[in-house]
Design goal:
Elements (H helix, E strand, L loop, with lengths): L25 E5 L6 H11 L3 E3 L2 E3 L13 E3 L2 H9 L3 E7 L2 E6 H9 L3 E5 L2 H10 L4 E6 L3 H11 L4 H15 L7 E4 L3 H16 L2 H12 L10
Parallel strand pairs: 1-7, 1-8, 2-7, 3-4, 8-9
Antiparallel strand pairs: 3-6, 5-6
Helix pairs in contact: 1-7, 5-6
The chain binds guanosine-5'-monophosphate.
The site of guanosine-5'-monophosphate has 15 residues, from strand 5, strand 6 and helix 4.
């Protein structure tokens, strides 16, 4: 069976051609804490070619298993504030009592390399980036319910009781801002949700505005006069 005839569509290359030199696409992904976006994003980064992750800076202490420079660049408040004052962040925000910021240098490096970029940031950061880059694509990951979110956060065992309560009480306000996003993905089942997220990336790459160069190239192969057949 040829790979593009697979009934599950698993091996079909869905990637449209990218115009040489075209700027990358900004994907902003938001979810309340415990929404499972980390796992989801890791899957999509693995399965979709040409997609880079913007590693943020934070003053939050690392959780077990988190690596500096991979999960985040972990730093002190003083260092964060100095970087912020030097303009090193594309956006920054206080989230659940800690400072978080997206590195301008990381984003610029990836875009210069022609890659699309995923910013996994909170709703305040998302609004700031949208102001800066009107073309950014916003995706909100929704948990199936409040109970599911609470159970997931509890099972993760990464937060102290106080932080856990703070994260849960902030979650409603985050989800309520769903209208600010272009796409909503329900994270009820990670495989399904990861496929949906990948589909969003492919759909954005196939937008007419990003494929017009291809249409012009195809059109140029058509004779202007009625063809001799
Ligand atoms: P966590 O501490 O669970 O890794 O992240 C807490 C929240 O901070 C999440 O909503 C996450 O998306 C957000 N966050 C992570 N990096 C950034 C960033 O660079 N900027 C902003 N504004 N939020 C961020």
């Amino acid at each position: 069976m040829s790979s593009d005839a697979r009934p599950d569509g698993g091996d079909v290359n869905l990637d449209p051609a990218v115009e040489p030199g075209a700027p990358g696409i900004f994907f902003i992904i938001c979810a309340p804490s415990g929404g499972g976006k980390g796992t989801l994003i890791r899957r999509v980064l693995k399965s979709v070619p040409g997609l880079a992750y913007s590693v943020s800076w934070t003053t939050r202490p690392p959780r077990p298993g988190e690596t500096d420079g991979v999960s985040y660049y972990f730093t002190t408040e003083q260092d964060f504030e100095q970087r912020r004052d030097r303009g090193e962040f594309l956006e920054w925000a206080v989230v659940h009592g800690n400072l978080y910021g997206s590195s301008r240098a990381v984003v610029e490096k990836e875009l210069a390399a022609g890659r699309d970029i995923v910013l996994e940031i909170d709703v305040q950061g998302a609004a700031a980036v949208r102001q800066l880059m009107g073309e950014a694509v916003g995706v909100m990951i929704l948990p199936p319910s409040f109970e599911a979110l609470r159970d997931r956060l509890l099972a993760r065992r990464t937060e102290a009781t106080g932080t856990l309560a703070l994260r849960l009480s902030n979650a409603r306000g985050e989800v309520a801002r769903y209208t600010e996003f272009d796409y909503l993905v329900l994270n009820d089942e990670v495989d399904r949700a990861a496929k949906q997220l990948a589909a969003i990336v492919y759909a954005e790459r196939a937008r007419r505005a990003r494929q017009e160069w291809l249409a012009r190239r195809v059109l140029a192969t058509f004779p202007e006069a009625p063809p001799d057949v």
